[in-house]
Every structure is written in structure tokens, then in C-alpha cells.
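Good morning C.,

I know you're traveling, so I'll keep this short. The sequence:
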Amino acid sequence: MDFSVIIVIAAIVLGVIIVLRLLAKPIRFIFKLLINTVLGFVLLWLINFFGGGLGIALELSLFNALIVGLLGIPGVLLLLAIHFLL
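The C-alpha cells, ready to paste straight into the viewer:
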């Protein structure tokens, strides 16, 4: 093999490693947001299922699930507060 071919292959491998490391954090954040949104949707469903008899009902929407996914339990409390205030 020619020395210039080895340098080109090494540069390509190094470039791929750099790109993957740069994209790792955004991909991890998006994956975490997706998991939290799904868990938020399940939590909203549980609140509607068990809170229906008490008059507590929150809309099952992507927006509400994202709020719960981003904020967690404080997001649920925020949605409940908005529900009772409006």
C-alpha cells in the first residue's frame, strides 16, 4: 500500500470518529426526550384513568406529554394547576 492511501484512510476514520462524537450528545438528548415524553404520556393516562372519578382530567396530547417529559413531576403539577385555574 502506498503511504498516501494510509493517510487518507486514517483521515477518514478520524473524521468519522469526530462526527460521531459531535452527534452523540444531541442524539442522546433526543432519545432521552423521547423516552420522557412516552413516560409523560403514560403518566397523563394514569391520571385520567384514576382521577376521572375525582373530576381530574388532563388532555392526552403531545404538547402535554412533552411538558411532562421535559419537567417531570413538576410538569404534571403545572398542568394540574393550569387545569384548575382555567
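Safe travels,
E.
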